[in-house]
Amino acid sequence: MANRQLLHIYAIIFIDVIVGSAVGPILPEFVKGLERPQLWLAVGTALFLGMQLFSAPLLGKLSDGYGRRPIFIISAIGTFLADCLLLPVRVGYYFANRVSDGTTNGMYATVRSAITDISPKESLFKNLGIEGAIISLGFVIGPAVSGLLLTTFDVVQGDQARVVAIMAVTLSSVNMILSWTLRETHPNPPGITTAALKMELANSLDVHTLWTRLLAKDRQYPGLKILVMMQLALTLSTGYYFYFVTFASFGALQMDAKAISYFFMYFGGLSVVISYVFYGYIADRINQRLGIFWFALLGAPILGSYGLVGTSVLWLYILVTVDCLTFSLIQGLIEGLMAQLTSDEDRGEIFGINQALQGVASFVTTVIFGALSLIDLRLPFAWFGTCLAVVAWLAWQRKR
Q1: How many angstroms from the chain centroid is the CA of residue 159?
Q2: What is the CATH number of the domain that holds 245?
Q3: With the C-alpha atoms ordered 48, 355, 307, 328, is the resulting torsion angle positive or negative?
Q4: Distance between CA 273 and CA 47 in Å, rounded?
Q5: Which residues in 296-329 are b (16+ Cβ under 10 Å) and which e?
Q6: CA 117, 123, 125: angle at the middle one, nearest 5?
Q7: Which of 107, 72, 85 is nearest to 177 (CA)?
């Protein structure tokens, strides 16, 4: 039964991340008529990621008090409504979508709690590693699905945004059904008072309070803080997933939605194969912290080199191949190690704090790469590579 529940949760995650990232190649269509469109894309991304600052801890706390299933259902409905806002291809609806979808995206604290609820200790690392891999892969599989759709039906330039938005609405409706049919993984939840919810919301908006709560949890679970710090540095570097569409669309490559989708089709397919082999047969057999160190150390120059490809599509594909073998494997390793430092009583809270801090990091990196892109569209990749080098340094410190 636990295996069925696990597969059920993986299916929900898989569809959710595909929906969230499939719209990436079409987002330039919403802002192309504005001055400095790369800046407005960055603003939309900042709104999307920044909303998690308060929603992740709140949803995590609610899932501890009322169960995981209600949060899955609420988030699925919210994503469906947010995707409907993309059907009119207008800039105002784009920003409304970013706010709405960013709020429900805070459910991933609940996702990690649900997986941990039903995972035996010996399978915990592997199961959460797969979840992390699915999320990472979603950033590339979603645009690949968009590419297949646009290619199969030979959709012309002016209709591409609406067609992809319709696909997103359709898939998010499927996720509402899957969420409704999910069996509860956290039976007999104790409930939570209104006062406690208000306090959680107030605390989630205070970064200093979030960090203080993390330090308290680190005293309870030694080693948690440095794992969260690695996660935050990784989040700063994964801003390149959100920035790539801007770079490819408005930079020297001048790629349209189809060309971007073709690139992500390759990226996604290769990532699926490599991640399956790695998390299925290798991740449990290596020193995970040492693995994070080497993947980050080797991946840092790769991220920096994206900005140097110029007009060469060949070099772009070479770099992304190495990316799949290094940087793309780190997320699942960190989440697996973190999950081992939780308990049934506060799992949702810990994952919620972590995701909220990730929301802060995502907002910060979006502001930074948005500002750097105004100077030169290549500069943000130097920032992303530097942040990944920090992950390597933190992993080395933890190893010592």
Answers
A1: 27
A2: 1.20.1250.20
A3: negative
A4: 33
A5: bbebbebbbbbbebeeeeeebeebbeebbbbbbb
A6: 85
A7: 72
Q: Which of 138, 152, 33, 146 minimizes the C-alpha distance to 94?
A: 33
Task: Give the model confidence (pLDDT) of 155-197 as tens digits.
Answer: 777 788 888 899 999 999 999 999 999 999 888 787 777 777 6
For the ranges 179-188, 240-249, 273-282, the one whose mean pLDDT is highest? 179-188
By residue range, what is the domain housing residue 356?
2-181+196-399
Cα end-to-end distance, the chain, whole Å: 41
Residue range 203-223, pLDDT digits in tens: 666 667 778 888 888 888 888
Residue type, 12: I
Q: What is the pLDDT of residues 97-127, one digit of tens each?
A: 888 888 877 677 788 888 888 888 777 767 8
- Is 300 within a domain? yes
Domain membership of residue 188 (yes or no) is no
User: CA-to-CA distance for 43 and 63, rounded, in angstroms?
Assistant: 30
Q: What does the alpha-carbon distance between residue 59 and residue 204 come to, in Å, rounded to a whole number?
A: 11
Looking at residue 322, its amino acid is: V
What type of residue is 45? T
Domain count, the chain: 1
**Arithmetic mean of pLDDT over the chain:** 83
Tokens for 276, please give them.
Answer: 């399956």
**pLDDT beyond 80 at 257:** no
- Cα–Cα distance measured from residue 80 to residue 72, given in angstroms and rounded to the nearest whole number: 12
- Whether 297 is in a domain gets the answer yes
Tell me the one-letter amino acid at 2.
A
Is 148 part of a structural domain of the chain? yes
